[in-house]
Amino acid sequence: MSNDLVSLGIESLGLNLTSTNIADLELFLQEMGRWNQVHNLTAIEGEKNSVRLHLIDSITVLPVMRRFLGLPNPKIADLGSGGGLPAIPIAILQPEWHLTLIEAIRKKTAFLQHVRGKLGLKNIQVLSERVEVVAKAQPGQFDAVISRAFTNLAYFLELSLPLLNPNGLVFAMKAKRADQELQDVCMNDWRLVADEPLEIPNLAVERRLLVLSPVRKLPL
């Protein structure tokens, strides 16, 4: 993979990547491609599609997350992390953020641990557990929760709520079905903070990032 191919999609995002950032992102995709041949980490194959639909799709959320996460060292949980998306690209570009990757399938957590060591990502933690188990062990410990194509929005919010601290935010990466999924969310329990369109350079697909916060009810 050439630097030009990565930069083609990333330059327009205004993230000011360093050569080290690009090298680490490339290495991550190379390792994903290598492991995918044996372990079926993702259904999307090929260099061009991987760059556009995996890496760039994942980091388009960064400008929005930076805007809403005012803390210097936020703690973020990535639910159903799979092959490490969006958490690994975010961890590469935001070394001061702490990311916990929650994934129940062990062959995928093995890959995540491998990438963590290969890239020296000291700002990530990999948990080979179901989200519900982590929520019981670490209630209210996270400033934000994110996922990419993990489950429907209503269930994602249900899983996220126990993990969030009182001021926590949910970042839900969605596509065209976002409006339909929002209809299934009880807006007495959640507030839609932002609905941000995400443009993947050189790819005509609709992406949106929904930012939601829980409405905390006072105890009776």
UniProtKB/TrEMBL annotation:
Pfam families hit by this protein: GidB
CDD domains recorded: AdoMet_MTases
InterPro entries assigned to the protein according to its UniProt record, in alphabetical order: rRNA_ssu_MeTfrase_G, SAM-dependent_MTases_sf
Annotated EC: 2.1.1.170
Subcellular location: Cytoplasm
Cytoplasm is among the record's keywords: yes
Keyword set includes rRNA processing: yes
Reactions catalysed, as given in the entry: guanosine(527) in 16S rRNA + S-adenosyl-L-methionine = N(7)-methylguanosine(527) in 16S rRNA + S-adenosyl-L-homocysteine
Gene Ontology MF, one: rRNA (guanine-N7-)-methyltransferase activity
Cellular component GO terms, alphabetical: cytosol
Keywords recorded for this protein, A-Z: Cytoplasm, Methyltransferase, rRNA processing, S-adenosyl-L-methionine, Transferase
Binding residue positions for S-adenosyl-L-methionine: G80, L85, V131, E132, R148
Family: Belongs to the methyltransferase superfamily. RNA methyltransferase RsmG family.
Function noted in UniProt: Specifically methylates the N7 position of guanine in position 527 of 16S rRNA.
Name of the featured protein: Ribosomal RNA small subunit methyltransferase G
